[in-house]
Amino acid sequence: MRLMSDLPIYAQKNREMWSKYAPDWVEPGRKSWESSVITWGIWSVLESEVGALGDLGDLAGKDAIELGCGTGYVSAWLARLGMHPVGIDVTPNQLATARAFQQEFGIDFPLIEGSAENVPLPDASFDLAISEYGASIWCDPYVWIPEAARLLRPGGTLVFLRNSTISILCGPDTGPISNVLVRDQFDLYRVEYDAESVEFHLPAGPLIRLLCANGFEVLDLIDIKPPAEAEPTRFEYMNLEWAKKWPAEEIWVAKKK
Ligand SMILES: C[S@@+](CC[C@H](N)C(=O)[O-])C[C@H]1O[C@@H](n2cnc3c(N)ncnc32)[C@H](O)[C@@H]1O
């Protein structure tokens, strides 16, 4: 990566926060690396039920970039399907975990230390750009969406998972999610729950406009519902009963024209 000081202040903050908490993500990361099936989000909803990636048989041999890859399990799943993934993440400690898992599980793919807002790779290099709570919430959409568009080949697909807008609107700065709206939707964009980090949660209207302005056609917006047998998660802000009534997570699928 170029100098840390080249990053915007919010990205420097997020990198410091993720450096601190990376050890907490090792065991969850290992469980996901161990899994032979692709799942989405905090309730591990099966891709076979969600269908965000289309026909998995069509993916072999194609090139994928994971934007904010963290411990790298999404890229590992794609590699097992025969794809050629590349992971980029801004936090060295997260990449160290990903490298350790590559050794442990015998799956190798390039890992780049850098920001998903400024990827050091040529235009039109990938068929799929994917993010599971990576760039999709930690990067500025007005920067990372154009970057994803640049990296994709015509006809390529952008798939990303993020917190739903309604979950952000019902989520106070501290404590569990509420049954009432606690945040305004107009001007919702940059959200700072604490002094440690900065998230981005653009609502659907401006996000659709941004995707279209960058040459994408929006194909799907999938609301994630926890399965009937789901159990409460380790994420204290989220409440299973809440998530059975309203979508807590959503997957966007868009095609580069
Ligand atoms: C919740 S993890 C998601 C990754 C993966 N799905 C996982 O759970 O390991 C969020 C990741 O986004 C990364 N991240 C934050 N800001 C970033 C940026 N500007 N560019 C690339 N990665 C970034 C963090 O370092 C962290 O590894």
Nutshell version of this structure?
The chain is of the alpha/beta class and 257 residues long. 33% of the residues lie in helices and 23% in strands.
How are the secondary structure elements laid out?
Layout: H1 9-21, H2 26-34, E1 39-40, E2 45-46, H3 47-50, E3 63-67, H4 73-80, E4 84-89, H5 92-105, E5 111-113, E6 126-132, H6 135-138, H7 141-151, E7 152-163, H8 165-169, E8 190-191, E9 199-200, H9 204-213, E10 216-224, H10 240-245, E11 249-256
Parallel strand pairs: 3-4, 3-6, 4-5, 6-7
Antiparallel strand pairs: 1-2, 7-11, 8-9, 10-11
Helix pairs in contact: 2-4, 2-5
Q: Can you walk through the features of this model?
A:
Helices cover 33% and strands 23% of the residues. The mean pLDDT is 96. The protein is of the alpha/beta class. The protein has helices spanning 9-21, 26-34, 47-50, 73-80, 92-105, 135-138, 141-151, 165-169, 204-213, 240-245, and strands spanning 39-40, 45-46, 63-67, 84-89, 111-113, 126-132, 152-163, 190-191, 199-200, 216-224, 249-256. The chain is built from ten helices and eleven strands. It has one domain (4-165, 202-235, 249-256): Vaccinia Virus protein VP39 (Rossmann fold, 3-Layer(aba) Sandwich), CATH 3.40.50. The site of S-adenosylmethionine (SAM) has 24 residues, from helix 1, strand 4 and helix 6. S-adenosylmethionine is lined by residues 11, 14, 18, 25, 29, 68-71, 74, 88-91, 94, 115-117, 132-135, 138-139.
